[in-house]
Write a structure and sequence with these properties.
The protein is an alpha+beta fold. The chain has helices at residues 44-52, 74-77, 94-103, 110-123, 139-151, 169-186, 197-203, 221-226, 231-236, and strands at 4-15, 18-29, 33-37, 59-64, 67-68, 79-82, 157-161, 190-194, 206-211, 214-219, 241-250, 255-260, 267-272, 281-286, 291-295, 304-313, 320-325, 330-335, 347-352, 360-363. Strand 12 and strand 13 form a beta hairpin. Helix 4 packs across helix 5 (139-151). The two termini are 38 Å apart. Bound molecules: adenosine-5'-diphosphate and magnesium ion (MG).
Length: 367
């Protein structure tokens, strides 16, 4: 991240007795695209509405550049926002919709209006659509009109709430590419809300994971995937199996050695996530590509014994995802070649792949 441009400092928001946002602190660099990723109900839209000035925080501050905008009304913040359902005016043309964003900020000069609308339509690849009615446009085109309307006043910050979620899957990917192109072209600092990991990874320079109103982790996609900070991130961002075990040893290289709870459990190395001690109950979060599947007869000393419980074909890259029952838990493993994917009921062994992502050990929180 470059120098912080947008800073959220300890934002809290309650609706009645429900704490929807709890101490959210975050810095976004100038020109950076931050993807805010979380499941439905985690508080994403509320956070975006606080940024836009449509809701007031109960505590905390919002700064843009060197200015505290916490108490500034929405119109004076000069931020562009695209709502989840676009909120376009169906009776107006594309021109009318895009001009509305400018007029609502007091821009009246017809020549300036025309020029700014043309500029925004160019950015959103909508040249030639000026006089079309909203109802005549595809979902992807409507999304771009909403984007053009937000960009026309040359905002200092762009806020996008699930901009692609009401497009059908075939349109979504194309519109996502166009959205990325437009954001890059404008070079504008952007906060983009999504519940889809793929979208967050594709569009975000960094990704902030929100769950139950609390930020879980903020970092580039690779970091979230390879070094998830807790079991929520490990399972929400990509797939992980959680394998119970007990800490046997911790070393000075930030590693823990965990005796897995299953069968005659071997001891596996994992990345230490918090201060763990010998005897702590942990869960190992294991990525499917971190393990290798072997016939039971070839089980090495550090291998796990199990039985194939299920397998499914996952397409060209992940040929098979094989679920192995260990006797009390199931771990999923990715198998690339069909002939290596054992059949349901087969006795198999699992061993860590040295080149795979290292399992992460998380302390089991009682209750
Ligand atoms: P997300 O966008 O991540 O799905 P929201 O920010 O929309 O989550 O909602 C977070 C929580 O806050 C939900 O439990 C939702 O019901 C609640 N909530 C949102 N807006 C209001 C409101 N105006 N009044 C009461 N509860 C609200
Ligand atoms: Mg939402």
């Amino acid at each position: 991240m470059t120098t912080p441009y947008l800073v959220l400092d300890g934002l809290c928001k309650r609706f009645d007795r429900l704490a929807v946002l709890d101490q959210v602190s975050l810095a976004v660099g100038e020109g950076e695209v931050l993807a805010l990723l979380g499941p439905s109900g985690s508080g994403k839209t509320t956070l975006l509405r606080l940024l836009a000035g449509f809701e007031t925080a109960d505590a905390g501050a919002i700064r843009l550049g060197d200015r505290d905008v916490t108490a500034l009304p929405a119109v004076q913040r000069g931020f562009g926002m695209v709502f989840q359902h676009y909120a376009l005016f169906p009776h107006l043309t594309v021109f009318g919709n895009v001009a509305f964003g400018l007029e609502s900020r007091g821009e009246k000069d017809p020549a300036t209006l025309r020029q700014r609308v043309a500029e925004a339509l160019h950015l959103a690849d909508l040249e030639g659509f000026e006089s079309r009615r909203i109802g005549e446009l595809s979902g992807g085109q409507q999304q771009r009109v909403a984007l053009a309307r937000a960009l026309a006043p040359r905002p200092r910050l762009l806020l996008l709430d699930e901009p692609l979620s009401n497009l059908d899957p075939t349109l979504r990917e194309r519109t996502r590419r166009e959205l990325r192109k437009t954001i890059e072209r404008v070079g504008i600092t952007t906060v983009l809300v999504t519940h889809e990991q793929e979208e967050a990874f594709d569009l975000g320079d960094r990704v902030a994971v929100l769950w139950r109103g609390q930020l879980q982790q903020v970092g580039p996609p690779e970091e979230l995937y390879l070094e998830p900070a807790n079991r929520f991130v490990a399972t929400f961002v990509g797939r992980s199996s959680l394998v119970p075990g007990t800490v046997r040893l911790t070393d000075h290289a930030g590693r823990v050695w965990v005796r897995l709870a299953h069968a005659d459990g071997p001891v596996w190395g994992a990345a230490e996530v918090e201060g763990l001690h010998e005897g702590d109950a942990v869960e190992l979060a294991v990525r499917p590509e971190a393990l290798r599947l072997l016939p039971a007869a070839e089980r090495p000393a550090e291998g796990l014994a199990g039985t194939v419980a299920a397998r499914r074909y996952g397409g060209a890259w992940t040929s098979y995802l094989v679920a192995v029952e260990l006797g009390g838990g199931v771990v999923e493993v990715e198998v690339l070649a069909a002939h290596d994917a054992a059949r349901v009921g087969d006795a198999v062994a699992l061993e860590p792949r040295p080149e795979g992502p290292r399992p992460r050990a998380f302390r089991v929180v009682p209750g």
